[in-house]
Automatic annotation (TrEMBL):
It is a multi-pass membrane protein. InterPro entries: CstA, CstA_N. PANTHER family: INNER MEMBRANE PEPTIDE TRANSPORTER, PEPTIDE TRANSPORTER CSTA. Residues 4-383, 392-528 form the CstA N-terminal domain. Keywords: Cell membrane, Membrane, Transmembrane, Transmembrane helix. The keyword Cell membrane applies. Its main location: membrane. The chain crosses the membrane at residues 6-27, 133-156, 162-180, 187-206, 246-267, 276-297, 317-336, 357-381, 401-427, 467-485, 491-507, 514-536, 556-576. The keyword Nucleus does not apply. One of its GO terms (biological process) is cellular response to starvation. This is Carbon starvation protein CstA. GO terms for cellular component: plasma membrane.
């Protein structure tokens, strides 16, 4: 057994070196300059382009990128391959790959009027390359919406207290938005009042837990169940349970509605309040690990009960390479962050120098969240045979043990950590739907047909994303779905790094391309192999060539497997094709001596 404090010390030391050294170099490298007018000021419209105070925007950005992925990925990888490989990938990969990715995505968008990475690469490689990247991003968004909606439902089932607290939290966020942006009342007193109210909401959740159908066995006896029966008739209930299956469509509807609201109504105030859950949950857990190791006695020792390494073929039968690197996406490197950085954050950045702490520093913060998640699963050590329904609530249970170092009862600490997880997930879910609409708007341009109008309409687009997401969820194949999401996410990260490399190559031929080019090549190779494994081994071989699976699989499971195969192959094709186009542009730019100046070079004529 190893004390989990050494996990924290290792990660914190490497992250500190990265922020103080590498991020400072990158900020100088891309020439951040506060004298430049940011897109938020240049195009301020009160809807999407809205300058935000740095702590508010940091809270929004962090909550949007963190989601549940840096919690789910390390937990899933830890129980399959052991905590040591997961820790190494987080501690080394984050400052060298993920934080660089987030920072250059945000910086490049700043120099292109807050436009997405699809628009940016289109300026250099032409319309075909732009549309390929945007379609890739849109398909990835569908996977994001699917896995996050499912994870929220699983946590709501295990912790009905979090369902009630989340409802209170959403209402408070709307009221805080009105307080700040409509009534123009004082910022600091309002922050104090609403943060206190948010923690009161956790207490309300503990007192009045709510479920739709019969919840998990762990749920409190006083849980208020809205509908009688088990809900076994619902799609997906056979894989999880009726209560989980019932929450999924409601969460998708929430994401659709929330994504259509102006950012000041829910997105900005909710994400700012989420940042305090972060500080209390993640920051508190990190401090509690130190306190519980050195000074106090928590409810159980803060030591690893997972093995450090279960072998190259993990406990689920999956090979460590390449699947570890797509199982842990967020927490190390995540393409979804490039959509947030270039989709919403760049439209709200008050000044360019804020990009360093929000882009590079925000990703390091997500790595700390991933480390806490890994520590919780290492302490609790759930049975891998229990599946994700058991592994996910481990974050809340393990977090409650860690917080008991402060004398906080696990009956409060567990539901509180469940709310921390859910708050990030809800944020990422509706942010993803919003970003999906942006992607489709850029693909379509000016809608000319009823189909195009429906696809770009904020409600129609949400339906286009939510329906395939629901079909994927009902398959019940969690590990395949999560790794498919991770593979798509990592390939999108590779394409975002390709976009940044193309931008730098066209900007100035003196710009070195190794900081973005090497991570791009690494992630393209690993994740392409991972997606091909999932398509051919985990779906075609293990399912459609398996008579037992064919006999037992239902219609939803078969349709979901086909969708997963098609998605994996299409994503690999799009990524490799775009990488070839981008490489050609980089080669041509370098041979001709580079492009323009100030980070906004001459666009392509293609």
């Amino acid at each position: 057994m190893v004390q989990v404090i050494w996990m924290v010390v290792t990660v914190f030391a490497l992250f500190t070196i990265g922020y103080l050294g590498y991020s400072r170099y990158l900020a100088q490298f891309v020439e951040l300059d506060d004298s430049r007018e940011t897109p938020a000021h240049k195009y301020e419209d009160g809807q999407e382009y809205v300058p935000a105070k740095k702590p508010v925007l940091l809270g929004h950005h962090y909550s949007s990128i963190a989601g549940g992925a840096p919690i789910v990925g390390p937990i899933t990888a830890g129980v399959v391959w052991g905590w040591a490989p997961a820790l190494a990938w987080i501690a080394i990969g984050n400052p060298l790959l993920g934080s660089v990715h987030d920072f250059v995505s945000l910086s490049s968008s700043l120099r292109h009027d807050g436009k997405s990475i699809g628009y940016i690469i289109g300026e250099y490689v032409g319309e075909r390359g732009k549309n390929m990247l945007l379609w890739f991003a849109f398909l990835t968004i569908v996977l994001v919406v699917a896995v996050f909606a499912l994870v929220v439902a699983i946590v709501f089932n295990a912790y009905p207290e979090a369902a009630t607290a989340s409802l209170v939290y959403i209402v408070l966020a709307v009221l805080f938005g009105v307080y700040l942006y409509q009534l123009n009342l004082p910022f600091l007193p309002g922050t104090a009042a609403f943060v206190i109210a948010m923690f009161v909401g956790v207490y309300a959740g503990i007192q009045f837990p709510v479920a739709l159908f019969e919840p998990a066995a762990r749920a409190p006896a006083e849980t208020f169940v809205l509908f009688s029966g088990s809900g076994a008739w619902l799609p997906g209930a056979s894989s999880f349970n009726g209560n989980t299956a019932a929450w999924v469509p409601l969460i998708l509807v929430y994401g659709a509605i929330a994504s259509a609201l102006p950012v000041w109504v829910l997105l900005q105030p909710r994400d700012y309040l989420s940042s305090f859950l972060l500080y209390a949950g993640v920051g508190g857990a990190l401090v509690a690990i130190v306190v519980g190791t050195l000074f106090t006695t928590p409810s159980q020792p803060l030591v690893t009960n997972l093995e450090p390494y279960y072998g190259f073929i993990g406990r689920s039968g999956a090979p460590l390479f390449p699947l570890l690197f797509i199982t842990i996406a967020c927490g190390t490197i995540s393409g979804f962050h490039s959509l947030v950085s270039s989709g919403t954050t760049s439209k709200q950045l008050n000044k360019e120098s804020d990009a360093r702490v929000i882009g590079y520093g925000g990703m390091l913060g997500e790595g700390l969240l991933a480390t806490v998640a890994l520590a919780t699963v290492a302490i609790i050590a759930p049975d891998v045979g229990g599946g994700i329904g058991l592994a996910l609530p481990t974050f809340a249970a393990g977090g409650g043990v860690i917080l008991s170092s402060f004398g906080i009862p696990t009956s409060f600490g567990g539901p509180f950590m469940a709310l921390v997880l859910v708050s990030f997930l809800l944020t990422s879910t509706d942010t993803a739907v919003r970003l999906g609409r942006y992607m489709m708007e850029e693909i379509v341009g000016t809608p000319e047909t009823p189909v195009e109008e429906f696809a770009t309409n904020r409600y129609g687009n949400a339906f286009v994303q939510s329906l395939p997401a629901y079909i994927l969820i009902t398959s019940g194949s969690w590990l395949t779905l999560w790794q498919l999401f991770g593979g798509a996410n990592q390939l999108l990260a590779a394409l975002a790094l390709l976009t940044a490399t193309v931008w730098l190559a066209n900007w100035d031929d003196s710009k070195q391309l190794l900081s973005t080019g090497l991570p791009m090549a690494l992630m393209t190779t690993i994740t392409s192999l991972g997606l091909l494994w999932l398509a051919f081994h985990d779906n075609i071989y293990a399912k459609f060539m398996n008579p037992d699976w064919l006999d037992s699989a239902g219609t939803f499971a078969m349709v979901s497997a086909v969708v997963q195969i098609v998605l994996a192959l299409v994503l690999v094709y799009l990524a490799l094709s775009l990488a070839k186009i981008g490489y050609g542009n980089i080669r041509d730019a370098r041979s001709s001596g580079g492009g323009g100046s100030g980070g906004r070079p001459r666009p392509s004529d293609d």
